[in-house]
Amino acid sequence: MAWQGIIITGASSGIGEALARELAAPGVTLGLVGRNAERLGSVAEAVAAAGAIVRQGLFDIRDADALRSFVNDFAAAAPLDLVVANAGILDGRTPDGDIETAAAARNLLDTNLLASIETLHAALPHMRTRRTGQILLVTSQAGLAPLPDAPAYSASKAGLISYGLAMREAMREEGVRINVVCPGYVTSGMTAVHQGPHPFKISAQAAARKIIAGMEADKGLFGFPFTLFLGARCAIAAPAWIRRLVMNGMRFRVARYDGQKPL
Ligand SMILES: NC(=O)c1ccc[n+]([C@@H]2O[C@H](COP(=O)([O-])OP(=O)(O)OC[C@H]3O[C@@H](n4cnc5c(N)ncnc54)[C@H](OP(=O)(O)O)[C@@H]3O)[C@@H](O)[C@H]2O)c1
Predict the structure, then answer these.
(1) Is residue 88 in contact with ligand 1, taking CB distance under 6 Å?
(2) Reduced to 3 states, what is the DSSP secondary structure of residue 242?
(3) Max CA-CA distance within the chain?
(4) Is 153 one of the annotated active-site residues of the chain?
(5) CA dist 159 to 143, 153, 242, 258, Å?
(6) Which pLDDT tens digit goes with each residue over 23-64?
(7) What's the CATH code, domain 5-254?
């Protein structure tokens, strides 16, 4: 698939950074969004060295005005072929065992769910006008198999899966393809603060390659690794005692971090 105008949110680290590096090539314009100037700048340097034109968006993804003006400015300069709504945070049970607060849940839903929906809608008018384009929502298997140690994170991803699949059908006739990916454990800033088992963890580069293959095949809902994704898809239909048995082996805590690094 030849995407030439690409915006990636959460491009300063982990999966977003790996996608930017994989997709960078001469003739490609990459819009990279993040908050950490130093890390975003070093990703920008790397993708520019690979021949891509770079536009950096240094803002908080929850700032809808900044997001829309970045997307509009990008689309005025280059045709917008692909938008990856990837920026996200993890929160949940604290290292001393407390469950999340309502304020933490709201903050997480603002970032992972509402800002991702804003990202999709910021891109949509440009793609509907051209009757072409692709939008990827990065969700999680936690959206299929709810995590007792991260209720809001699970809810944010379940909401995004549902929203994405509904929008995929809604946009079907208009030439805009919407894909939803559910990664398993991937080495990144997020897994650095996840204090628990990481079965079948893969590198961010391996994850990026699987994501690109899924987008190229225009899969509606896809995930990896296969075993974990299959288990997660069955989880919601399984009796609660089976789910509890499996999930008991995957309990975790979330180290305190500022959304970028452990505190
Ligand atoms: N790693 C996993 O095992 C895993 C599994 C399933 C799903 N995912 C999903 O994959 C996505 C990427 O996460 P990751 O694992 O690559 O973690 P990561 O290394 O921590 O990267 C998260 C990215 O999101 C950005 N971000 C977070 N909050 C933001 C905000 N308010 N405004 C702007 N940018 C913000 C960060 O940018 P700054 O630091 O510059 O703010 C960073 O670039 C997330 O949606 C996550 O839920 C990850």
Answers:
(1) yes
(2) helix
(3) 54
(4) yes
(5) 7, 10, 23, 24
(6) 999 999 999 999 999 999 999 999 999 999 999 999 999 999
(7) 3.40.50.720
pTM exceeding the 0.85 threshold for the entire prediction: yes
Residue with tokens 């399984």: 238
Is the CB of residue 60 below 6 angstroms from any atom belonging to ligand 1? yes
Q: In whole angstroms, what is the distance from residue 181 CA to residue 198 CA?
A: 18
Does any ligand 1 atom lie closer than 6 A to the CB of residue 41? Answer: no
Quick one: tokens of 194?
Answer: 């996840």
pLDDT band with cut points at 50, 70 and 90 for residue 256: confident
Q: Are strands 194-195 and 253-254 parallel, antiparallel or unpaired?
A: antiparallel
Residue 135: strand pairing partners: 83, 178
Q: What pLDDT is attached to residue 260?
A: 54
Total residue length of the chain: 263
Domain ranges in the chain are 5-254
Q: Which of 153, 163, 185, 257 is catalytic?
A: 153
- Give whole-number Cα distances, 224 to 2, 209, 232, 240, in Å: 23, 11, 10, 24
Amino acid (1-letter code) at residue 177: R
As a whole number of angstroms, the distance between CA 91 and CA 128 comes to: 35
Pull the structure tokens for residue 103. 């304020």
